[in-house]
């Protein structure tokens, strides 16, 4: 990566958005419109990070939720009207402070613009996954914290909590 490229990345992530994702060892994040695992400890981690913030997601991720998550303001990207939730354009979402929470299309769209990335690596390789998180190699992220977590009684797999910054 040359100096001009690094400078461009810094300019582009001059917004107040972070991103949070859980993926397996192959980058898989979804299967048939759902999460492909049961990981209660990761859901708690997600809650700790996103509580009292704006959360921004794609329409398909919105439809995968059981409803609105407490104490968070929800924004959904869609090219159509979506009932019972605020919709937002990509350009307006870039002006918000908050968290990009998925799914695959929306991660890809916002990844060049976020400063912080919380990525949980679920210690497995899921079969039949149909949605993936992009490879972040060469995108200017630096791993600043990594924590190994053993599976609790309501988790299927061990996991690693990572925090990346640029
Ligand atoms: N493991 C994780 O951390 C995690 C997190 C979140 C989601 N997921 C999983 O990811 C999967 C869903 O991901 P996905 O990629 O299929 O869908 P998605 O990213 O959640 O949503 C895609 C939709 O977003 C809208 N959209 C995309 N680009 C847009 C733009 N530029 N402007 C306006 N609207 C735009 C479109 O909605 P319209 O079609 O309505 O126009 C599109 O169909 C599910 O399996 C879910 O469980 C996993």
Topology overview:
Layout: H1 3-12, E1 16-23, E2 28-30, H2 40-50, E3 54-58, H3 59-64, E4 73-77, E5 86-87, H4 90-93, E6 97-100, H5 104-110, E7 116-122, E8 131-132, E9 142-149, E10 159-165
Parallel strand pairs: 1-6, 1-7, 3-4, 3-6, 4-5
Antiparallel strand pairs: 2-8, 7-10, 9-10
NADP nicotinamide-adenine-dinucleotide phosphate binds at residues 21-23, 29-30, 33-35, 57-61, 64, 77-80, 90, 101-106, 109, 131.
What are the secondary-structure elements, in order, as H or E? Answer: HEEHEHEEHEHEEEE
- Regions with little confidence, pLDDT below 50 for 5+ residues: 1-11
Mean pLDDT comes to 93
Count of DSSP-assigned helices = 5
CATH C-level label:
Alpha Beta
The CATH architecture category equals 3-Layer(aba) Sandwich
Superfamily (CATH H level) name: Dihydrofolate Reductase, subunit A
Cα shape? globular
Q: What summary fits the major beta sheet?
A: 8 strands, mixed
Bound molecules: NADP nicotinamide-adenine-dinucleotide phosphate
Q: Strand sequence of the main sheet, in spatial order?
A: 5-4-3-6-1-7-10-9
Distance between the termini: 14 Å
Helical/strand content category: alpha/beta
- Rounded to an integer, what's the Rg over CA atoms? 16 Å
Q: How many individual domains?
A: 1
Beta-strand share of residues: 25-35%
Fold-level CATH name:
Dihydrofolate Reductase, subunit A
Range of helix content: 10-25%
Count of extended strands: 10
């Amino acid at each position: 990566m040359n100096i001009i490229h690094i400078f461009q990345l810094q300019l582009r992530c001059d917004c107040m958005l972070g991103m949070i994702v859980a993926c397996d060892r192959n980058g898989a994040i979804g299967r048939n419109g759902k999460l492909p695992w049961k990981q209660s400890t990761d859901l708690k981690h997600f809650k700790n990070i996103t509580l009292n913030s704006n959360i921004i997601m794609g329409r398909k991720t919105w439809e995968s939720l059981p409803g609105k998550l407490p104490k968070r303001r929800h924004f959904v990207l869609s090219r159509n009207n979506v009932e019972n939730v605020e919709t937002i354009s990509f350009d307006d979402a870039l002006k918000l402070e908050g968290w990009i929470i998925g799914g695959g299309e929306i991660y890809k769209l916002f990844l060049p613009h976020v400063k912080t990335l919380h990525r949980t690596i679920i210690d497995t390789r899921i079969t039949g996954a149909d949605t993936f998180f992009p490879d972040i190699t060469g995108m200017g992220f630096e791993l600043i914290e990594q924590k190994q977590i053993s599976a609790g009684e309501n988790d299927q797999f061990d996991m690693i909590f990572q925090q990346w910054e640029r």
